[in-house]
Amino acid sequence: MRKEIIKFLIFILILVIFYSLGKVLKFDFEDLKVYFKRFNPFIAAIVFVILYVVITFFVWLSKDIFRLVSAIIFGAEISTMLVFFAETINAVVLFYFSRILGREFVEKKLFKKKISSCRTVLERKKSFFWLLLLRITPFVPFRFMDLFMGLSPIQFKSYLLVVVLGSPLRIYWLQFILASLGLVVFKQPTEILNFLLYHKIIFIISLIYVILVIILGIKIISKKI
Fold first, then answer.
1. Range of the domain at 147
2. Do the Cβ atoms of 196 and 202 come closer than 8 Å?
3. What is this structure's pTM?
4. Spatial separation of the C-alpha atoms in residues 16 and 3, rounded to whole Å
């Protein structure tokens, strides 16, 4: 049991370090944009995916600036594919990161009596639907979901399917807005509303998002999920 506790403590310590790095290390938008423009588009795309996976794994809060840079340089569609590919890799890495270091402790110490029922719930078809909905809506950050699912009894192949099916729409929604507004998103968040009012398709998608979040919130509160 001591081994599981040590692994779990290391897991928590690493998470604290990652979060702290996000508070300390900052990346400049202009510097990153200039850096990626040094390469031809194909090489820049490869470099972006590699840096996104490596840097955002250690510095969680850096992913916003990387998404913005990719939206400006590659456009909404291409940047969506690049971010989706990178986030899928991150999902795999973070899932196994938490599963290897924290899963054993969680199962044996925290949820020893409930783990079987939890596994049964996660294997139900309706549970897959709610996990998919959770992935699609901007309700929970990808990082937190990836880590939590690694601690849960869910099978990797089931969660990977959730990631592949649920991530694209959410990513495209944000990349389209970032590609259209650029730094204004961070400097003047109120401009997002004006933008949505002039882009009906994105407004409709955003409205669907809100409805899905409300439904998901009600479901979670009612404890029927």
1. 2-221
2. yes
3. 0.81
4. 20
